[in-house]
Amino acid sequence: MALTDITRRLPPRENRLRWEEQLDELGATCSVEQAAAVLGVGRGLAYELARRGELPGLLKLSRRLRVSVPALKRALQVDGSEIV
Asked: Would you state the torsion angle of the CA atoms of residues 17, 9, 2, 81, taken in this order, to the nearest 10 degrees?
């Protein structure tokens, strides 16, 4: 499943405020599991996307994987623009 498939399954615009607040509470980075919850996918799929290099904002810090929240927001277009 590609990221574009995931973003198509985002909630309607009226529910997006909840997602924006959830992302803002994460800080600068989050875990792959937290990114999976925001994307609405399972932990396994999130790690598979990370392995394939398709998880937006993936940071490999030694053996630790983190996800950049600003990059995740851009991928989900939570900056106020609509999803196309």
From this structure: -40
Report how far apart, in Å, the C-alpha atoms of 72 and of each of 15, 33 are.
Answer: 17, 13
Q: What is the pLDDT of residues 22-47, one digit of tens each?
A: 778 888 999 999 998 888 889 999 99
Architecture in CATH of 3-76? Orthogonal Bundle (1.10)
Q: Residue ranges per domain, the chain?
A: 3-76
pLDDT at position 21: 75
CA angle 15, 19, 22 (to 5 degrees): 140
SS percent in the chain: helix, strand, coil, step 5: 50, 15, 35
- Which residues are bridge partners to 64 per DSSP? 61
Residue 52 pLDDT > 60? yes
pLDDT value, residue 12? 54
